[in-house]
Hints:
- By secondary structure, the chain is mostly helical.
- Helices cover 60% and strands 5% of the residues.
- Strands 1-2 form a two-stranded antiparallel ribbon.
Amino acid sequence: MPQEQTDAFSLDASKTITLSELAECCGVSAGDLDELMDYNALVPLDGVGQELAFSAHWVVPLRKACKLRTDFDLDLFTVAILLENLNRIELLERQVQSLQALVPLHLRPMQH
Length: 112
């Protein structure tokens, strides 16, 4: 997959990506992705075509998890836990940003 397409997946999480595309752009085998699905760490979309499809929002956290797997020689079970935590962190960061947007400017702490 060309780098431009890979970047587009990471920038537009509303798109879908097939199992083979996800494996290619994250540098992981389809078998490893199957194992992550077995651990319920990676969840495919329901009823999208012949091949398994995923939300493209998986690209960024899966890339991070796979990089950490390589850097620290992690097993797939640990990657599954890591992937779940990366997703939780991203959700919490979005929630904090949403809450911060509700605070009037004059009440926000000064950022250095």
